[in-house]
C-alpha cells in the first residue's frame, strides 16, 4: 500500500474493492491507483475495553458516529500525467481522489504501441465495467502463460474464448492437449481434432511408456532404468521390428526377443541361467502379462509429428483429444511431440506456435516421478527454447503449488499468470505471490466465476489487475 484514502461521507456505499481511482496529487502529477484493503472504523466501538459506544450498542442504540470513518489502501499503478510511468512523487496528504465514471475508461492509460494499434490487443474487461477492455502486451506471449483456478473458476472458458483468440491474433497457430476430451474437442469441427491412437510415437517414448506400464519391473530409484530387464526391453524397442506387427502379435514378439537377450547375458560358464537371470525372467513374464492389446494399439499411430504440425498450420487451431488413453499413454504422446518441437527449435526454426496444456499437474506435478519427471523436464526445456523461437506454452492448473499445483521449476517459466478462485490449500502460496502486491489471499478464495487477477509480463500495469469475462454455458 503506497497511500491511504479516506472516503467522504456516504461514499462508502459507492466505492468498492478493486475500483480504479485517479489521485490528483498536490505535488503536481496525476496518479492511477486501485482501491485495496478496505477498512471501516469507529473509535467508539473498542470491543477490547469499556467505552460508551459499546454500552450504547448493548442497549440496542446507535453509538455516536462522530469518530467513524471509512478508508481504502491504494495500490499505485503509475503516474499518468502524460503517459504511464513510474510514480516518483510523494503523494501529498489531502490530495483529491476521484473514482472513474464508466465513460472515462482508465484503461486508455495502459495502452501501449503506436496509436493505430491501441484498442486492438485486449483481454476481457476490468472487473464489472464492460467498456473498459483490459490491454495486454503481445510481445510477451512467447514468455509463457499460467492459468490457475479451482474447478468452476472459468479456466477453460478463459482459454477458449480469450487466450486462443489472442494467440491467433498474434499470428500463432495453436495445439491444445485436451486431457479429458470434454473441454475443447466438442467445441471444434472433427477435422480439427486428432485422437491419441492416431499419433506416431518415437522409440524412446514407446520404451518409457511400456516401462512405466510394466511398473519398472519392480525396480526403484536409479535402478528403474539401469537393469538388465529394462535394457533388454529398450534394445528390442529401438530395433523397431515391432512396428510391422498387429497389437495382438507385439506382446509375444517383445517377450520372445527380450527374454532371449536377458538369458544370453545371464548364463554362467556351464551355460545354465544364473540366479539373477531367473529372477529377471520372472520379473519380465510377470509384468508383461499386465499389458492388453489396447496398450499396444496406442503405440502404433501412423500420423507423424510433421503431419500433426502441418495440420495445425492448415487449421490454425488443432485439438489433441487424448482422453481415451491412460495417464501414461497421454504423457507419452506429449513427450513424443514435445521432443519433436524441441528438435526443431534446436535447429533454430521459428515455430510461431502455442501449446495449450490442460490439467497441468498431470504433466508436471509438484514432485514428479517416472514418466511425469520426463514430461516436466520437457516442459522446462520447451519454455527455455520457446522464448527465442516463438513457442508459447500455456499451462492450466487447479492449484498453484503443493499437491494440487505444478512443479516449481516449471512455474518459474510462466511469466504471465491469470489467478482465479483458489483452493484454501493454496492460500499460503498465493500469499507469497500476491500479499506483496496488497491482495489478500482470502479474497481469492471467494472470487466469482470468470474473475481472474492478471499479472506478469503481458500486463502493462506493474500491479495485478482484476479482469472479468462473460461465461456462456452454451458455448
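^ Assign residues to that structure.
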Amino acid at each position: 500500500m503506497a497511500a491511504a484514502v479516506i472516503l467522504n461521507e456516504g461514499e462508502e456505499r459507492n466505492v468498492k474493492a478493486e475500483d480504479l481511482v485517479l489521485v490528483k496529487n498536490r505535488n503536481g502529477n496525476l496518479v492511477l491507483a486501485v482501491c485495496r484493503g478496505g477498512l471501516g472504523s469507529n473509535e467508539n466501538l473498542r470491543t477490547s475495553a469499556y467505552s460508551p459506544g459499546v454500552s450504547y450498542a448493548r442497549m440496542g442504540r446507535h453509538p455516536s458516529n462522530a469518530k467513524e470513518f471509512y478508508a481504502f489502501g491504494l495500490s499505485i499503478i503509475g503516474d499518468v500525467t502524460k503517459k504511464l510511468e513510474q510514480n516518483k512523487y510523494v503523494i501529498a496528504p489531502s490530495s483529491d481522489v476521484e473514482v472513474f465514471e464508466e465513460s472515462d475508461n482508465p484503461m486508455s492509460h495502459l495502452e501501449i504501441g503506436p496509436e493505430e494499434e491501441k484498442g486492438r490487443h485486449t483481454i476481457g474487461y476490468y472487473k464489472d465495467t464492460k467498456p473498459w477492455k483490459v490491454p495486454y502486451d503481445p510481445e510477451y506471449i512467447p514468455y509463457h502463460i499460467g492459468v490457475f483456478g479451482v474447478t468452476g473458476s472459468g479456466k477453460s472458458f478463459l482459454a477458449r474464448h480469450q487466450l486462443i483468440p489472442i494467440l491467433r491474433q498474434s499470428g500463432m497457430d495453436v495445439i491444445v492437449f485436451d486431457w479429458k476430451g470434454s473441454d475443447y474437442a466438442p467445441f471444434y469441427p472433427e477435422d480439427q481434432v486428432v485422437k491419441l491412437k492416431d499419433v506416431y510415437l518415437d522409440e524412446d517414448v514407446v520404451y518409457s511408456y511400456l516401462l512405466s506400464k510394466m511398473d519398472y519391473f519392480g525396480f526403484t530409484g536409479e535402478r528403474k532404468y539401469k537393469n538388465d530387464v529394462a535394457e533388454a526391453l529398450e534394445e528390442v524397442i529401438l530395433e523397431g521390428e515391432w512396428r510391422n506387427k498387429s497389437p495382438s502379435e507385439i506382446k509375444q514378439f517383445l517377450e520372445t526377443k527380450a527374454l532371449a537377450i536377458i538369458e544370453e547375458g545371464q548364463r554362467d560358464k556351464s551355460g545354465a541361467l544364473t540366479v539373477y537371470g531367473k529372477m529377471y525372467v520372472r520379473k519380465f513374464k510377470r509384468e508383461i502379462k499386465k499389458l492388453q492389446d489396447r496398450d499396444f494399439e496406442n503405440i502404433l499411430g501412423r500420423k507423424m509429428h510433421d503431419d500433426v504440425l502441418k495440420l495445425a498450420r492448415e487449421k490454425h487451431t488443432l485439438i489433441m483429444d487424448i482422453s481415451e488413453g491412460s495417464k501414461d499413454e497421454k504423457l507419452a504422446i506429449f513427450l513424443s511431440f514435445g521432443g519433436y518441437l524441441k528438435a526443431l527449435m534446436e535447429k533454430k526454426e521459428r515455430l510461431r506456435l502455442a501449446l495449450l496444456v490442460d490439467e497441468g499437474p498431470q504433466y508436471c506435478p509438484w514432485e514428479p516421478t517416472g514418466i511425469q519427471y520426463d514430461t516436466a523436464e520437457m516442459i522446462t526445456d520447451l519454455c527455455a527454447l520457446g522464448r527465442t523461437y516463438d513457442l508459447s506454452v500455456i499451462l492450466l492448473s487447479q492449484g498453484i503449488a503443493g499437491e494440487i499445483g505444478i512443479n516449481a521449476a516449471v512455474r518459474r517459466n510462466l511469466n504471465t499468470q491469470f489467478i482465479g478462485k483458489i483452493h484454501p490449500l493454496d492460500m499460503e502460496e498465493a500469499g507469497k505471490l500476491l500479499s506483496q502486491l496488497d491482495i489478500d489471499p482470502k479474497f481469492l478464495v471467494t472470487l466469482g466465476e470468470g474473475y481472474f487477477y492478471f499479472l506478469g509480463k503481458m500486463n502493462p500495469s506493474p500491479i495485478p489487475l482484476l479482469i472479468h469475462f462473460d461465461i456462456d454455458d452454451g458455448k
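The chain has 14 helices and 16 strands.
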